Amino acid sequence: xxxxxxxxxxxxxxxxxxxxxxxxxxxxxxxxxxxxxxxxxxxxxxxxxxxxxxxxxxxxxxxxxxxxxxxxxxxxxxxxxxxxxxxxxxxxxxxxxxxxxxxxxxxxxxxxxxxxxxxxxxxxxxxxxxxxxx
Length: 134
Known about the structure:
Strand content: 35-45%
Radius of gyration: 20 Å
Number of helices: 1
Mean pLDDT: 86
Distance between the termini: 55 Å
Structural class: alpha+beta
Oligomer: single chain
Strand order of the largest sheet: 1-2-5-6
């Protein structure tokens, strides 16, 4: 019985802190990723390298199933690098080059020096290289 009471107290305190977070956090919709070559709209990417450097959001690489439902097409890996910067009144995406190869599903860590990108894969190979986006 005592354990049950402790669980109820813990759940209640968690719920009340979650409600308080809504008062303290503000959410803002960011612009969609820009279209990739030959596309009208960017469907988004899975497994990109993502991090923050110099107050900008960096999104690099990733994979998706562009143009058709995933069961009707092959997965495509991407090498695009996008940087989201805050202007005076809005956020804007800036194209910022390409990765050395189309790559997705690695790990990324934001550091003072930039975004450290570790490993990843493409349609045929798994990579162990580490590189820095800054």
